[in-house]
Amino acid sequence: MTMQPSLSLPEARLPVFGVPVYDLTWRDALSYVNELTAQSFGQTHVAFLNANNANLMMSDSDYRAALGRTILLPDGIGVDLASHVLNGERFVANLNGTDFIPAMLSYMDTPRRIGLVGGRPEVLAEAAVNFRRHAPWHEFIAISDGFFDKVNCAAVLDDLKAARLDILLVALGTPLQEVWIDRNIRPEHARLVVGVGALFDFISGQVPRAPPWMRRLRCEWVYRLWLEPRRLWYRYVVGIPVFLGHVVRYKFLGPPRHPGGKDPAPPSAGAAE
Fold this sequence. Notes:
UDP-N-acetyl-D-mannosaminuronic acid transferase, glycosyltransferase, WecG_TagA_CpsF, 14% strand, hexosyltransferase activity, 6-stranded parallel sheet
């Protein structure tokens, strides 16, 4: 069971498809995760919700339940649009993981031990090198690439415990990473755990970022589709209409009778989940 720390949770939440997403400025979000890492006990799982992840949680009850036990941050123009339609207000900031994690590492001036799990072996190794260049006052420890048994993973968990980490970054892709974290990672493994998706690919330089002007317009997904049309066409060409369909249904019909799982209650500070 994951223990939430005694630190009070942010109050502002805007639900997207029945799951509460925290509406924070960059400064407030960075300050909050920094405080979480400074706690001497407990554990918090942070995840990011974008349109693709929202689609997945509508059909995957385990994933939806895992997200319900996280601090969930908004990622991308899709969930911003959904919140505008469903809640009457947009999120104040786009806290996408690709930008948020490097910013978080820069913001934390106290040296931390940070474990990395996921990615191909060469991607993991290069990501660790580039993380060290980005924030050399932290210690980055490559625990395991992503090619391990996600069910019988005692060896990886033992390595995590032995590493005495403050922060764990898990790059196994959604929904696998959130479900794996929820089922396996405990306070003795790290105080702050973040599912980071394809972040290691970007940090390692294996996948280029979109030009700054596209990122400012929040259209990096267009650039990624252009780079990898065969792999990503379904996510965007099919996924965007599916996502908009969920938004329309929630707006006019309310939640489905049996969504991917029961709408989870938001995590509460100091309680075992």
